[in-house]
Amino acid sequence: MFIAKVFDDFISLIYPHVCMACGRSLFKYEECICLYCRYHLPKSNFHNEAINPVSKLFWGKVNVHSAAAYYLFQKGGKVQHLIHQLKYKERSEVGVYIGELYGKDLIKSELFNTVDCIIPVPLHPKKQVKRGYNQSEMFANGLAASMNVSVNISSLTKSTATETQTRKSRFSRWENVKEVFVLNQAETLENKHILLVDDVITTGSTIESCVQKLNTIKGVKVSVVAMAYAMH
Predict the structure, then answer these.
(1) In the predicted model, what is the mean pLDDT of the chain?
(2) Which of 120, 127, 125 is closest to 141 using CA atoms?
Protein backbone atom coordinates (compact mmCIF):
# COMPACT_ATOMS: atom_id res chain seq x y z
CA MET A 1 0.00 0.00 0.00
CA PHE A 2 2.78 2.39 0.99
CA ILE A 3 4.85 1.46 -2.09
CA ALA A 4 1.83 2.03 -4.34
CA LYS A 5 1.28 5.49 -2.83
CA VAL A 6 4.96 6.41 -3.28
CA PHE A 7 4.79 5.26 -6.91
CA ASP A 8 1.62 7.31 -7.50
CA ASP A 9 3.29 10.36 -5.95
CA PHE A 10 6.33 9.87 -8.19
CA ILE A 11 4.16 9.60 -11.31
CA SER A 12 2.27 12.74 -10.31
CA LEU A 13 5.56 14.66 -10.30
CA ILE A 14 6.16 13.67 -13.94
CA TYR A 15 2.53 13.95 -15.03
CA PRO A 16 0.80 16.32 -12.60
CA HIS A 17 -2.81 15.38 -11.87
CA VAL A 18 -4.27 18.58 -13.26
CA CYS A 19 -7.14 19.52 -15.53
CA MET A 20 -5.96 19.54 -19.14
CA ALA A 21 -8.26 22.48 -19.90
CA CYS A 22 -7.72 24.91 -17.01
CA GLY A 23 -4.62 23.57 -15.21
CA ARG A 24 -6.24 23.29 -11.79
CA SER A 25 -5.54 20.26 -9.58
CA LEU A 26 -7.95 17.39 -10.09
CA PHE A 27 -9.78 15.59 -7.31
CA LYS A 28 -9.23 11.82 -7.11
CA TYR A 29 -12.57 11.08 -8.80
CA GLU A 30 -11.82 13.43 -11.74
CA GLU A 31 -10.06 12.34 -14.92
CA CYS A 32 -8.31 14.61 -17.47
CA ILE A 33 -10.89 17.39 -17.16
CA CYS A 34 -12.20 18.85 -13.92
CA LEU A 35 -15.91 18.72 -13.21
CA TYR A 36 -16.25 22.49 -13.64
CA CYS A 37 -14.71 22.40 -17.14
CA ARG A 38 -16.69 19.32 -18.12
CA TYR A 39 -19.88 21.31 -17.64
CA HIS A 40 -18.67 24.74 -18.74
CA LEU A 41 -16.49 24.10 -21.80
CA PRO A 42 -18.46 25.31 -24.86
CA LYS A 43 -20.24 22.29 -26.34
CA SER A 44 -21.83 22.65 -29.76
CA ASN A 45 -24.64 20.05 -29.52
CA PHE A 46 -24.40 19.87 -33.33
CA HIS A 47 -24.94 16.09 -33.19
CA ASN A 48 -28.64 16.82 -32.58
CA GLU A 49 -28.96 19.14 -35.61
CA ALA A 50 -28.88 17.85 -39.20
CA ILE A 51 -28.13 21.39 -40.39
CA ASN A 52 -25.36 23.07 -38.42
CA PRO A 53 -22.16 25.09 -39.09
CA VAL A 54 -20.03 21.96 -39.53
CA SER A 55 -22.40 20.24 -41.97
CA LYS A 56 -22.66 23.47 -43.98
CA LEU A 57 -18.90 23.42 -44.61
CA PHE A 58 -19.40 20.48 -46.99
CA TRP A 59 -22.48 21.66 -48.87
CA GLY A 60 -21.86 21.62 -52.61
CA LYS A 61 -18.43 20.01 -52.14
CA VAL A 62 -18.78 16.40 -50.96
CA ASN A 63 -21.63 14.18 -49.87
CA VAL A 64 -21.61 13.90 -46.06
CA HIS A 65 -24.46 12.16 -44.25
CA SER A 66 -24.03 14.02 -40.93
CA ALA A 67 -21.35 16.25 -39.42
CA ALA A 68 -20.71 17.59 -35.93
CA ALA A 69 -18.09 18.56 -33.36
CA TYR A 70 -18.07 18.21 -29.58
CA TYR A 71 -16.63 21.58 -28.58
CA LEU A 72 -16.49 25.08 -30.05
CA PHE A 73 -12.88 26.16 -30.48
CA GLN A 74 -11.84 29.75 -29.80
CA LYS A 75 -8.25 30.98 -30.07
CA GLY A 76 -6.71 31.29 -26.62
CA GLY A 77 -9.60 29.47 -24.95
CA LYS A 78 -9.66 26.39 -22.76
CA VAL A 79 -10.59 24.08 -25.64
CA GLN A 80 -7.48 25.16 -27.53
CA HIS A 81 -5.39 24.46 -24.43
CA LEU A 82 -7.01 21.05 -24.06
CA ILE A 83 -6.24 20.02 -27.62
CA HIS A 84 -2.73 21.49 -27.40
CA GLN A 85 -2.06 19.05 -24.54
CA LEU A 86 -3.14 16.19 -26.79
CA LYS A 87 -1.22 17.21 -29.91
CA TYR A 88 2.01 18.63 -28.54
CA LYS A 89 2.40 17.56 -24.90
CA GLU A 90 2.09 13.77 -25.31
CA ARG A 91 -1.18 13.58 -23.40
CA SER A 92 -2.84 10.97 -25.60
CA GLU A 93 -5.33 10.14 -22.84
CA VAL A 94 -7.04 13.48 -23.51
CA GLY A 95 -8.20 12.30 -26.94
CA VAL A 96 -9.49 8.99 -25.58
CA TYR A 97 -11.34 10.70 -22.74
CA ILE A 98 -13.05 13.27 -24.99
CA GLY A 99 -13.97 10.47 -27.37
CA GLU A 100 -15.58 8.48 -24.58
CA LEU A 101 -17.62 11.51 -23.51
CA TYR A 102 -18.76 12.35 -27.03
CA GLY A 103 -19.49 8.75 -27.98
CA LYS A 104 -22.10 8.59 -25.22
CA ASP A 105 -23.90 11.50 -26.90
CA LEU A 106 -23.52 10.24 -30.46
CA ILE A 107 -24.96 6.81 -29.73
CA LYS A 108 -28.19 8.54 -28.65
CA SER A 109 -28.38 10.65 -31.82
CA GLU A 110 -30.47 9.47 -34.76
CA LEU A 111 -27.86 11.00 -37.06
CA PHE A 112 -25.01 8.84 -35.75
CA ASN A 113 -26.45 5.75 -34.06
CA THR A 114 -26.10 3.55 -37.17
CA VAL A 115 -22.32 3.96 -37.49
CA ASP A 116 -20.57 0.67 -38.41
CA CYS A 117 -16.93 1.69 -38.03
CA ILE A 118 -14.73 4.66 -37.23
CA ILE A 119 -11.84 5.90 -39.37
CA PRO A 120 -9.47 8.55 -37.98
CA VAL A 121 -7.95 11.06 -40.40
CA PRO A 122 -4.50 9.52 -40.91
CA LEU A 123 -1.12 11.09 -40.27
CA HIS A 124 1.85 10.49 -42.53
CA PRO A 125 3.95 7.69 -40.95
CA LYS A 126 6.94 9.99 -40.42
CA LYS A 127 4.83 12.55 -38.58
CA GLN A 128 3.19 9.86 -36.49
CA VAL A 129 6.56 8.47 -35.44
CA LYS A 130 7.70 11.97 -34.50
CA ARG A 131 4.56 12.69 -32.46
CA GLY A 132 4.30 9.17 -31.05
CA TYR A 133 0.65 8.65 -31.98
CA ASN A 134 -2.14 9.97 -34.17
CA GLN A 135 -4.27 12.29 -32.03
CA SER A 136 -7.34 11.59 -34.18
CA GLU A 137 -6.87 7.86 -33.59
CA MET A 138 -6.89 8.46 -29.82
CA PHE A 139 -10.20 10.31 -30.21
CA ALA A 140 -11.48 7.45 -32.39
CA ASN A 141 -10.54 4.88 -29.74
CA GLY A 142 -12.59 6.73 -27.13
CA LEU A 143 -15.58 7.05 -29.46
CA ALA A 144 -15.37 3.35 -30.33
CA ALA A 145 -15.41 2.33 -26.67
CA SER A 146 -18.62 4.26 -26.00
CA MET A 147 -20.32 3.44 -29.31
CA ASN A 148 -19.30 -0.24 -29.33
CA VAL A 149 -17.90 -0.18 -32.88
CA SER A 150 -14.47 -0.88 -34.35
CA VAL A 151 -11.69 1.52 -35.38
CA ASN A 152 -10.22 1.04 -38.85
CA ILE A 153 -6.72 2.50 -39.36
CA SER A 154 -5.74 0.50 -42.45
CA SER A 155 -8.31 1.45 -45.11
CA LEU A 156 -7.38 5.14 -45.35
CA THR A 157 -3.71 6.14 -45.27
CA LYS A 158 -1.67 9.25 -45.97
CA SER A 159 0.93 8.80 -48.67
CA THR A 160 2.49 12.27 -48.76
CA ALA A 161 3.80 14.40 -45.92
CA THR A 162 2.20 17.84 -46.04
CA GLU A 163 3.01 21.17 -44.45
CA THR A 164 1.10 22.31 -41.38
CA GLN A 165 -2.34 23.73 -42.19
CA THR A 166 -2.43 26.22 -39.31
CA ARG A 167 -1.72 29.46 -41.18
CA LYS A 168 -2.99 28.54 -44.64
CA SER A 169 -5.99 30.00 -46.46
CA ARG A 170 -8.88 27.72 -47.41
CA PHE A 171 -7.61 27.34 -51.01
CA SER A 172 -4.05 26.67 -49.82
CA ARG A 173 -5.34 24.07 -47.35
CA TRP A 174 -7.20 22.31 -50.16
CA GLU A 175 -4.16 22.38 -52.46
CA ASN A 176 -2.07 21.00 -49.61
CA VAL A 177 -4.18 17.86 -49.11
CA LYS A 178 -6.16 17.16 -52.29
CA GLU A 179 -4.10 14.14 -53.48
CA VAL A 180 -2.40 12.83 -50.36
CA PHE A 181 -4.83 10.17 -49.08
CA VAL A 182 -4.96 6.57 -50.33
CA LEU A 183 -7.83 4.09 -50.07
CA ASN A 184 -6.98 0.44 -49.37
CA GLN A 185 -9.20 -2.67 -49.52
CA ALA A 186 -12.30 -0.61 -50.27
CA GLU A 187 -14.46 -3.71 -50.62
CA THR A 188 -14.34 -4.30 -46.86
CA LEU A 189 -16.21 -1.02 -46.35
CA GLU A 190 -18.97 -1.51 -48.91
CA ASN A 191 -22.47 -0.59 -47.72
CA LYS A 192 -21.19 0.63 -44.34
CA HIS A 193 -21.85 3.83 -42.39
CA ILE A 194 -18.37 5.22 -41.72
CA LEU A 195 -17.62 7.82 -39.08
CA LEU A 196 -14.58 9.87 -40.15
CA VAL A 197 -12.98 11.69 -37.22
CA ASP A 198 -10.44 14.50 -36.79
CA ASP A 199 -9.18 16.68 -33.95
CA VAL A 200 -10.21 20.18 -35.10
CA ILE A 201 -12.27 21.21 -38.13
CA THR A 202 -11.48 24.68 -39.44
CA THR A 203 -12.21 24.96 -43.16
CA GLY A 204 -12.92 21.25 -43.61
CA SER A 205 -10.35 20.84 -46.40
CA THR A 206 -8.63 17.78 -44.93
CA ILE A 207 -11.94 16.07 -44.18
CA GLU A 208 -13.21 16.95 -47.66
CA SER A 209 -10.24 15.23 -49.28
CA CYS A 210 -10.77 12.11 -47.16
CA VAL A 211 -14.50 12.00 -47.85
CA GLN A 212 -13.90 12.20 -51.60
CA LYS A 213 -11.88 8.98 -51.35
CA LEU A 214 -14.36 7.20 -49.10
CA ASN A 215 -17.34 8.17 -51.26
CA THR A 216 -15.92 6.07 -54.12
CA ILE A 217 -16.81 2.94 -52.11
CA LYS A 218 -19.98 1.13 -53.19
CA GLY A 219 -23.02 1.89 -51.00
CA VAL A 220 -21.02 3.79 -48.40
CA LYS A 221 -22.39 6.49 -46.12
CA VAL A 222 -19.88 8.88 -44.52
CA SER A 223 -20.44 11.01 -41.43
CA VAL A 224 -17.92 13.31 -39.79
CA VAL A 225 -17.15 14.39 -36.24
CA ALA A 226 -14.30 16.27 -34.59
CA MET A 227 -13.29 17.13 -31.07
CA ALA A 228 -13.77 20.80 -31.88
CA TYR A 229 -14.97 23.21 -34.54
CA ALA A 230 -13.00 26.43 -35.01
CA MET A 231 -15.59 29.18 -35.26
CA HIS A 232 -15.06 31.76 -38.00
Answers:
(1) 89
(2) 120
